[in-house]
């Protein structure tokens, strides 16, 4: 199946804004990214942030009518206010209207995990599937839900947050009960991402190892790393099986740093397919295809 072309692309700029850098590019109708630019994100000063972003946009050729942003944060669809822990200067700010007034063009914003899911659903690993739940296995865990090619956005911009909610319980002998950045305790995010995996390994084996070292040890047969990864895969596959049962997703593209480990994705897929209600012989958890460009490509579909 050919990639779904974006016919609005000739007049559209897309941006991917994170806590460290903001990237911008024009997405062509056949989903090539051209005129790429990148600068450091001025995360603590709103005026500097807006001015720096505006300068990037103004370097583009004339004829740009709109800009779509993939943001490492949330935008409330009712108020347009953003919440971005790593870009504090825009938290509580209705950024889209502000940039629209400054630039004189339409501005749309979506969460970066949502843009990732949208890109993979329409032009990546999820093509041909009606329901796609994209997941991020990075520093933490995140996700986005796409149904029939349309991004599902909930209240306050919250959808697909499978890493949050009190999944674990105090006193559990198999998993630590840790405080989460969202304000709760026992969330999957406290264990599911790279930093969480490191905490879990220390709790379970009393070894200080990086997530990369844990993965390497697991693949080479080190007993302590195998013990950690057995519990890690079991917990993540529990949560993913529930998400698949609830959403009906037939494809779950995985992105983020941990997703680059093929054996992890394959192990998660095997475990999930044993636990979800819909039985299938074909993989459900798969590696994403669009890499670091998924945010920019997904933004083009907003």
From TrEMBL:
The UniProt keyword set, sorted, is: Kinase, Transferase
Q: Please give the Gene Ontology molecular function terms for this protein.
A: kinase activity
Any stretches that span the bilayer, and where are they? none
Concerning Pfam families, the annotation shows:
ROK
Keyword Transferase attributed: yes
Taxonomy, superkingdom: Bacteria
InterPro entries according to UniProt = ATPase_NBD (IPR043129), ROK (IPR000600), ROK_cs (IPR049874)
Q: Does the keyword Transport apply?
A: no
Q: Can you tell me which family this protein belongs to?
A: Belongs to the ROK (NagC/XylR) family.
Q: Which PANTHER family match?
A: BIFUNCTIONAL UDP-N-ACETYLGLUCOSAMINE 2-EPIMERASE_N-ACETYLMANNOSAMINE KINASE, ROK (REPRESSOR, ORF, KINASE) FAMILY
Q: What is this protein called?
A: N-acetylglucosamine kinase
Q: Which organism is it from?
A: Asaia siamensis
What taxonomic classification does the UniProt entry list for its organism? Bacteria, Pseudomonadati, Pseudomonadota, Alphaproteobacteria, Acetobacterales
